[in-house]
Write a structure and sequence with these properties.
globular, 15 helices, MetI-like fold, two-stranded antiparallel ribbon, 285 residues, mainly alpha
Length: 285
């Protein structure tokens, strides 16, 4: 019999509530700032924590662009969000596809130096894009992939982590399934499509959430490979809105853009939350 301790339960709930408040408060402040004017944010110290009456104007200017109260011109964020969405989807789907196929080959095909090939893939964990950024940029430039979706996504698609996770999962699949598929006349592709892929659904969902957020939040790589403003993702758009020197920053529009940039990842996480948690639990097993 499990002994219930009300005091410990109360302490656990208090800690959880405090954690939620600590995480949610900056988001709340960001939303409140997006409902006020730039003058109200700058002049009122400390800033009011009550919603203002400028919500529709701030989000309209952030989404579709236009002139602000300080007379500056704001570029529309809607195209930037579309670029970020396409890049995140391509990176997430590409990583999962390549990782599943490479893990499938390493686990189910017998070829010389199979273990060496896997460890060569695994060693690339020590060479993220940030480490090899200059040679990668040189290759992308030589292939004329600057200011293109291919340049934004292709160098970020390969993933040793996802390959390792799928390999570990495939190793837990009983050999009897592969034998039964072989007896029934199913080839490798049929076995992969009809058996392994459905069994990997939760792992795919968990990795999709992680890789989508990874692709959505990219800043350093797009900063290098995009020189045309029409190819800027939303994270770069937020940074460019923050003026330097004596120029005034439209903080209400910046905060509105930050809130808009949070929405797609939040939708992905909330939509796939059950699969995400189940995939992480299954991966641990």
């Amino acid at each position: 019999m499990v002994e219930r301790r009300p005091a410990l339960d109360l302490l656990a709930h208090v800690v959880l509530v405090l954690g939620v408040l600590i995480v949610a408060f900056p988001v709340y402040v960001t939303f409140i700032a997006s409902t006020q004017t730039a003058a109200q944010i700058v002049q009122n110290v400390p800033m009011s924590l009550l919603p203002g009456d400028n919500l529709l104007t701030s989000y309209r200017v952030a989404l579709f662009g236009g002139d602000t109260e300080y007379g500056s011109r704001i570029a529309p964020v809607a195209p930037m969000m579309m670029i970020s969405l396409i890049s995140a989807l391509v990176i997430a789907i590409g990583k999962i596809s390549i990782s599943m196929l490479s893990a499938f080959a390493v686990v189910y095909f017998r070829f010389p130096f199979r273990s060496l090939v896997f460890w060569m893939i695994f060693v690339t964990l020590m060479l993220p894009v940030e480490v090899r950024i200059f040679p990668t940029y040189q290759v992308v430039s030589d292939l004329h992939m600057l200011n293109t979706y291919a340049g934004l996504t292709v160098p970020l698609i390969a993933s040793a982590t996802a390959t390792f996770l799928f390999r570990q999962f495939f190793l837990t699949v009983p050999d009897e399934l592969a034998e039964a598929a072989r007896i029934d006349g199913a080839g490798p592709i049929r076995f992969f499509k009809d058996i392994l892929f459905p069994l990997s659904a939760t792992s795919i969902a968990a990795l999709f959430v992680i890789q989508f957020i990874y692709g959505w939040n990219q800043y350093l790589w797009p900063l290098l490979v995009t020189t045309d403003e029409s190819m800027y993702p939303v994270v770069m758009g937020i940074r460019r809105m923050i003026s330097g020197g004596d120029a005034a920053t439209e903080w209400n529009v910046v905060m509105a853009t930050a809130i808009l940039a949070m929405i797609p990842p939040a939708i992905v996480v909330l939509t796939m939350q059950r699969w995400f948690v189940k995939g992480l639990v299954d991966t641990e097993k």
